[in-house]
Amino acid sequence: MHNVMCLCAVGGEVLFEVDCTRLSECVCLRGRQFDRVIFNFPHCGRKSGVTKNRLLLKHFFLSCVGVLKEEGEVLVSLCNGQGGTPADRPMREWHNSWQVVAMAAEAGLILNEVRPFDSEKPDGYQSTGEGEECVGEGEECVGEGEECVGEGEECVGEGEECVGVGGYVLRPSLLEREEVLHGVSGLVFQRVPISPWSPPAFHQLLLWGAWPKASQSIPDLGRSLQRLLTPYGLSLTEEQGSLWLAAEPMGRLGRLWADDLTDDVSVCLNLDLLASLVYSLPDWRLLWSPDPRFLNHFLLRPLPEQPFHPFSLFPQSFVYDISFWAGPDWQEAEFHALVREASRETVENVTLIDTYTPNTQTDTHPDITHTSYCYRLTYRSHTHALSHTLALKRHTHLQGLLSTRMHLTVR
What we know:
Layout: H1 2-9, E1 34-40, H2 50-65, E2 68-79, H3 100-105, E3 109-116, E4 130-137, E5 181-189, E6 201-210, H4 214-229, E7 235-239, E8 242-247, E9 251-259, E10 264-270, H5 271-278, H6 292-299, E11 318-326, H7 332-343, E12 347-356, E13 371-379, H8 388-404, E14 409-410
Parallel strand pairs: 1-2
Antiparallel strand pairs: 2-4, 3-4, 5-6, 6-10, 7-8, 8-9, 9-10, 11-13, 11-14, 12-13
Helix pairs in contact: 7-8
């Protein structure tokens, strides 16, 4: 009662018998929107199981969406282990937790912060070792991203010598390099299979120029790039006269090669993968997100030593298999393009699990010219909420498109 009186004394309004799963139906709350909704230690009462408490969270989050402002957030205090996230210590088995990330995703919300519960703030509260989950609202949208690339120059080649530590070679004009080194950057598009680090569209930087003894300059250029990017795990491998730049987990992200006939040296870099490597991005799709939480991080021009902190914590992944019969005119590239369309770029990996072609002598399949394919699709999003319901809906939509668009027989 003391806390109620304190709230009223500072202009607060206290309402009783409000159903947290039907906030928009409360007469006193109709037409009102809030910056923050707080639910401390939700529980169905008595010895209710985790299933009932999950439903309580789900319906609470769905109810909150109707009374939240566009940039509003929801704070939920849970006992340690109930959330079912890696932040819980100890972490319960997923099936034995309240699955706060999954329940919030059903309402289009993402988990963006986890912090210890401050037992000193609530007046009269006795701490029993709880933790707090902070869930903020997410948006489902995909757009174009921008990145800033700074200038730099290495002294490489005959006739030039790098000054020692603390010294610099200053160039008086770019005109002297106009006919030596050229560069262009822009968007490129490729029809590539869906995999975690194979973007179909990305920003590419291409440098080329004339160098004396071009093939001998490649190792020097490679070492220069390696010195710059070794702290981020970059390695160089030689294959068929070219040097490839690679790093884990994205694989190859650049190539250097030479043409001794024309004395041309070329460098090609995937800037999206390079930015993901340098700033520790969990997914290249973040570079295309218009979410202000992502863009504001780079408006401050952070140094590479300041890695990006994801605004969507512990996003769930959903795995579904799909099987179908395809004829001899089957094109796998069209299948991957249709997966991107149906899933709205939320499928991060497609793996061929199995194929089967009927035996002409022993099999009774009506069309022995067809082959059965089984693929495994992994759905996950680092940019917006992806619930089990939404992932299943998009997977079902894909099955329909395979039948109507590609005329495949889905099994």
